[in-house]
Every structure is written in C-alpha cells, then in structure tokens.
Amino acid sequence: MGDLATKPHSRETIGHLDRDKGIDCILLAGDISYANNHHHIWDEWLDMMSAHDFFSSTPVQIALGNHDLDTVHRTGPIQ
After folding, report:
1. Less packed terminus of the chain by CB within 10 Å, N or C?
2. What is the DSSP string of 7-63?
3. pTM (2 decimals)?
C-alpha cells in the first residue's frame, strides 16, 4: 500500500485493514503521510494509524517516498 496520506479516503482504506483479520503484515511503500516538511502532518498520520487495532498487533514495514523526506532549504535533502 502506498500514497496513503491523511485524507478521508485514507481513513476508509485503514478501516478495511481493521476489518480484515487475515493480514499477516503490511508494507507501506512510500509517500505515506505527504508531510512535505510539515511536521504536524506526521502527527496527524501517526494519530490516524494509532487509532486502529491492526497498528498495534500487525507488523508494519515502511519505505519512505519523496513526499516523506524533510529537506533543509539551504543544504538540500537531509541524509
């Protein structure tokens, strides 16, 4: 799953994960929060995920995408 963000459709997708008890693990394949240097969006995303049972009982592997990386405006991407 990728391009999740914190939109209404994101919450609907996460709701499906709560109802499907046959999921062994979840791979979040990039652009998971669309924070784009806005740290409060990461807080919203973590709050959204934490509100669901599967997040505390199912392994989640995260691969960051280009919209998840913070940058320092003077020096470029944070390494």
Report:
1. C
2. SHHHHHHHHHHHH-TT---EEEES-SS--TT-HHHHHHHHHHHHTSTHHHHS-EEEE
3. 0.74
Specify the pLDDT at position 13: 87
CA distance linking residue 54 with residue 17, whole number of Å = 7
**pLDDT tens digits for range 32-79:** 888 888 888 889 999 988 888 888 888 989 888 888 877 766 656 656
Q: Residues 3, 50, 58, 10: what is their CA dihedral angle, to the nearest 10 degrees?
A: -30
Taking phi over 0 as left and psi of -120 to 50 as alpha, with beta for the rest, 24 belongs to alpha
User: Would you mind telling me the total number of residues written for the chain in this entry?
Assistant: 79
